[in-house]
Amino acid sequence: MPITAPPVPFVIDVPQSELDDLTRRVRDARLPEPIGADDWTSGVPISVLRSMATTWIDDFSWREVEKQLASFPQYLVEIDGQRIHYLHVRSSRADSTPVLLCHGWPGSYLEFLDIVPLLTEPDDAEVQAFDVIVPSVPGFAFSTPLVDDGWSTDRVAQAFVELMSYLGYGSYVVQGGDYGAGLAPAMGRLDPEHCTAIHVNGSIGAPFQEPDEAEQKRCTETELDRYRRVGEFMESEFGYISIQSTRPQLIGAALTDSPIGQLSWMLDKFRAWTYPFDEEPDGTLGRNRILAHVTLYWLTRSAGSAAYTVYAAEGGAWAGPQAKPSQPVGAIMFAHDIGIRHLAEREFDIVHWTEVPDHGGHFAAMEEPARLAADLRLFLSALPSGR
């Protein structure tokens, strides 16, 4: 897979006309009447959408987001004909370890802004420092538009392998959650000579079948609760996957023309997948952080292409079992996560597994950046020298 155009520095500077158009659309949005009690049982409450729309217009500033992002070196490179955007922050420490961080849906590279300085410039000189590379998955953010189809997980992973090689890293580790938890092992399988370790959060070892009697006896109460929550998810929350995996262009057309639609589609998951369970999303992540993600999807017109890459591409996130990567794998499961270690061990060489029963959710790098960074270091510190 060739580098078809070398990296060039990238600075985000959205035309004001785009932001004015977004403000007008949000202000003039036509909302439906509430259904029933106007609670979360049938989707995002209309009252919440109205309130979020007011915040979007009056209190959120994309220009402030741009200023924050300007402090992180960003680049565009073309790999296999596809524009790929990435953030690359080098540590000042000569003994730093390269780590590539992989995001998922409905997130983006914005998930990692808080954890980057914790990894690159730790306060404690005795702990491991990292060079951090955060690519935007093709179809997301500024890795758009997609130039063709066929962006399977393996193809995305190969593109990221090529990026790490081009950047000159002879060895590196990879970390990911959600889609990134599948993409990280794919990089390991494709690049065993250079990818030395894999760290994930969230969903490896997820139980997608009912436990039989023997499994029930083997599981802890926490693991049985994960079986229960996955079952509830399959019954009541699977609809978005059905749509995005079969009709990504349909949902893309709807959301690309409606900022309130884009907000509602993403806010539903930001609320459902953060911890504590069923808390209003702005209590965990904050409204401005959620609106930054939604605005990024809106400005890059990436609702459909992101859905395609993660859910609809052949060999995407829902591909079947893959070959076992040779690298050691570390995992951290926060309170909202669903992985079960003995199930994960069927597919991975699990050498490190951390349970955090009372903190954190799906968006670990945003919700618990310090704990995630510490666990990555703990995992790597226990590996034999030379890994």
3D architecture notes:
The protein is an alpha/beta fold. The protein is 43% helix and 15% strand. It has 17 helices and 9 strands. It has a 9-stranded mixed β-sheet, with helices on both faces. The radius of gyration is 20 Å and the shape is globular.
Major β-sheet annotation: 9 strands, mixed
Q: Into which percentage range does the β-strand content fall?
A: 15-25%
How many DSSP-defined strands?
Answer: 9
- Please trace the helix and strand order, writing H or E for each element: EHHHEEEHEHEHEHHHHHHHHEHEHH
Question: Can you tell me the overall shape?
Answer: globular
The side-by-side strand order for the widest beta sheet comes to: 1-2-3-5-4-6-7-8-9
Helical proportion, percent range: 40-55%
Helices, by number, come to 17
List the helices and strands and how they pair.
Elements: E1 3-9, H1 16-27, H2 46-58, H3 62-69, E2 74-79, E3 82-89, E4 97-102, H4 115-120, E5 130-135, H5 153-166, E6 172-177, H6 179-190, E7 195-201, H7 213-218, H8 221-236, H9 239-246, H10 248-256, H11 259-272, H12 281-284, H13 287-300, H14 303-312, E8 328-333, H15 341-344, E9 349-355, H16 364-367, H17 369-381
Parallel strand pairs: 4-5, 4-6, 6-7, 7-8, 8-9
Antiparallel strand pairs: 1-2, 2-3, 3-5
Helix pairs in contact: 5-6, 9-10, 9-14, 10-14, 11-13
